[in-house]
Amino acid sequence: MCADIPRNRVPRVAPLPEPEWDDTLRAVTASAGPLNVFTTLGRHPKLFRDWIGLGTRLLMKGLLSDRDRELAIMRTAHLRDCAYEWGHHRRLALAAGLTEAEVAALRLPLGDRDWSDGDLAVLTAADELNERSTLTDATWTALSARFGERELIELVMLIGHYHMVAFALNALRVQDEEAH
Predict the structure, then answer these.
(1) What pLDDT is stored for residue 23 in this prediction?
(2) What is the per-residue pLDDT across 57-101, written as a single tens digit (0 to 9) for each?
(3) 1 occurs within a structural domain
(4) Sequence-separated (6 or more) residues with CB below 8 Å from residue 139
(5) Spatial contact of 25 and 4, defined as CB atoms under 8 Å apart
(6) Predicted pLDDT at 103
(7) In Å, what is the CA distance from 133 to each residue of 13, 32, 163, 169?
(8) Coiled-coil ranges per the record (predicted)?
(9) What dihedral angle (degrees, nearest 10) is formed by the CA atoms of 36, 38, 42, 46?
(10) Are both 163 and 132 inside the same structural domain?
């Protein structure tokens, strides 16, 4: 469930029942599980197929390290106030090597924790893209010292992608599987 929605609210778009799944949705759920994000967005099969390709590229086949990817996603989930995204990626963040203390600090102002320069650059990028829809020259310079051109493109696309996912999860009121 997304953070801005009381637990007693129902989804605006219910997950698609299993007998109605197409081959793409069956393949995705066989691999990742029958998550409500998939079974809800699967109600639009053509859009789902295109979206899952980009999502898979960014999540599992990207150039960024798992840690950098999850820092960017978790900060975005926090900034977009999306508990569903936060909950699912919290597990991935811990698996990527973030500590419980680091995960908790992702909800705080960036200056409240002594992040490494690399972590801080990624988190600052998420904050700036959220606030300004662009990056300052200082942040771009910090990121460029660490990443190549492809990684820079991927980071910006990753953060934008997870903004879009949070918007959909929040607006459609996709419920966490554990809430039921």
Answers:
(1) 97
(2) 999 999 999 999 999 999 999 999 999 999 999 999 999 999 999
(3) no
(4) 121, 124, 125, 128
(5) no
(6) 98
(7) 29, 31, 11, 20
(8) none
(9) 160
(10) yes
CB within 8 Å of 4: residues ≥ 6 apart: 81, 170
Contacts of 85 (CB under 8 A, 6+ apart): 73, 76, 77, 162, 165, 166, 169
The pTM score is: 0.93
In this structure, the answer to whether residues 147 and 78 fall within a common structural domain is yes
59: Cβ contacts below 8 Å, ≥ 6 apart = 69
Tell me which residue range forms the domain holding 26. Answer: 18-61
Own/partner contacts of 35-39, CB < 8 Å, gap of 24 or more, are 35/88, 35/177, 36/11, 36/84, 36/174, 36/175, 36/176, 36/177, 37/84, 37/88, 37/165, 37/169, 37/174, 39/15
Domain count, the chain: 2
Euclidean distance between CA atoms 80 and 94, whole angstroms:
20
Eight-state DSSP code of residue 131: H
Q: Which residues of the chain have pLDDT under 70?
A: 1-8, 179-180
End-of-domain residue from the set 61, 95, 115: 61
157 domain-assigned: yes
List C-alpha distances in Å: 162 to 6, 22, 120, 165.
22, 24, 19, 5
Q: Give the Cβ contact number of residue 122 at 10 Å.
A: 28
